[in-house]
Protein 1
Amino acid sequence: MPKHVRSAARELALALLVVSLSAGVGAAQSAANGLLGIFFDAQGTKCEGTLGQGGITTLYIVLVANGDTRGGIAGGELRVEAESSGYRLFGPHPFEQFTPVGDPFGSGVYLGAKCQSGVAIPIYSFQVQNLGGSGDGVISITPPSTPSNPEFPCALVLLCDTPAFTKICVRPGKAVLNPTGSVACGSGAASSEWGRVKELYR
């Protein structure tokens, strides 16, 4: 990507972050506005899989849109956490349209983008390595350690409603590596969204 394009994209992300910081308390919040999950595919249809010891695979952060987010998103904020030390997360890479500020594996990442829409919107990819983790290795989406606005302590996205960029809290999801069947991946309320996505790719 040319230097001037990268610079413009970063400026957009920072501008959206400033808007996010100043957003009012009245911004919409609803569990019906989509699932921000971790998947084994960029279409957001598979949230569990096997990974042998020493193995490496790619996971994807995808917004499965619903409600207000069906109109598209222009950024968001989130953090990624491995609940077991037996799995190492590395190589975070935003999809080209998203410009990040921060570290998704650290205190969190804030993202800006031109409006992106679709049933499933891929946001990030990253790698995970099995360093000896046992079954049911959970990797989940959480809020940033320091939310940009304390009134929104959640994983969230920004709507495309320029200039407001309304904040929307969304359901955080999780992926399960080497599942035993005792831990459910994704979100229990997300089956309808997954069904819509799967229908598109049949």
Protein 2
Amino acid sequence: MIYELDAAEGHRTFVVMPNRSMSWRELIGAYAFIAVVALAVAAYFYSRGLTLVLPFSGLELLFLAAVLYLTAWKSDWREVITLREGVVTVQTGRREPESHFEFQREWVKLILARTGSWYPSRLLLRSHGRQIEIGRFLNEQEREGLAEMLAAALGQRLEEN
């Protein structure tokens, strides 16, 4: 997902984040429903004398909880790209910025690097031997849309490799 927060003269802010299929509350609700059904089925088989069904069902639910938590944790990532008069700033992190990159706006190049037909492209901001990849969690169409939006905001032609 790409949101544009600010669009003042000479100042624009873009927030880029992965698509979330469910909120945290919806995810907990879905997991609780799956857990109740799985444990009910396991309890039924346990009462019929199949005692190993219950522990394996518990392991399955534990694994599912870990995978759902990891997925929700990864979908909380944000990239905030701010274009000001002379500076392009990229902040990345979850709830607050964990890393901060600054480039001089006059020297920054926006590059959409295509690596092959099977691999996704990479959107790079590059200046003075430093580069950062942005939008790596976006799908191809969203990454191309972000590249076009940033190129227009920077007032430059998008370079493609």
